[in-house]
Give the backbone structure.
Amino acid sequence: DLFTFPLCQTNDVYFAHESLLAQIPSKNRQLRGSSTIPKIRHDKALDFRKSNEMLKWFRRILVGLAILLLMTAGLVIVGLRMMYRTPDWYHPQSLNAEQRLAAAQSATNKLAILQNGTAFARAEERAVRNGATRQSTAPGGITISFSDDELNALMSQWAVWKSVRAGYEKFLSEPYLVLQDGRLILAGKLPEIDTIASLHFEPTIDQDGRLNLKLARVLAGKLPLPQAAMSTYQKQAAQALSLRLPRWRQRASIDPTGLANSDAVSAVLGTLIMHAMNHESADPVVFMEVVSKGRVPVKLSRVEIGDHLLTLTVLPMTADERGELLRKIRETDIPKMK
């Protein structure tokens, strides 16, 4: 009783030819175990279309991932090239021995102006203590400018830097200072990764009269880095300074004439570095060399950086101010890395 009839195939979908179905008597349209001839469903076509769409999206995802990987690889290659390139301004050996000596002498001659002003202030202070009248011609602020060549040559000869240098020599070599675009750049080689690291500071005297060494930029070679990238080296420097600061602070002294020993100088400089790494301001104190006698603390009242030129205005410190400075050195808590 079961009629057989041809099936047509279109787009992988099978259906009964309507003309043939019309010729089948209604009474013979009964199938064994069913009430009507089953309708041919299109599930196979739908499944195929869905799988085809999924394949298209899968291909698009693969292409996107490939493009992303290529871009990442390109960025890594460019970043590595920038990281290991030497900045144009980094020339620690640009001066020969004779030029370095001349630059150091030029800086020393300029320092003599500050030294004379400091010595004058000290002499007047002693005279006032002995009952003399303070002279109205006493010098106030003294302004002077240094080139970066002079500062680099001068720093290489200052014995006081040897104690501070011990805190960073293990992870930094060939330090170099550059004055450029309103910034003071401290650079040096990082032996661990064999590249030039540089910290770009924008030093200013804030409204409270404190020295703010704002860290504006960090570079590895020519590659800009987030400041967090230097956290490992900052922690190493902070740890080295933290080990030495208690000894420096304990041994620090400033005598009645205003002369400070090397431990007092190292303690102030070390504390300044710790504050700078914490993005904090610090007392604007530097030390001036008094010929054949020692170093005297003075206050910075102005800091200005031009193209390869640093201009400073310093003020002599009174006996009370020096006493307060020594108290801070000995009693103030050592800054902690944040």
Observations:
- The two ends are 92 Å apart (CA to CA).
- The first helix runs from residue 18 to 23.
- Residues 259 and 296 are 5 Å apart (CA to CA).
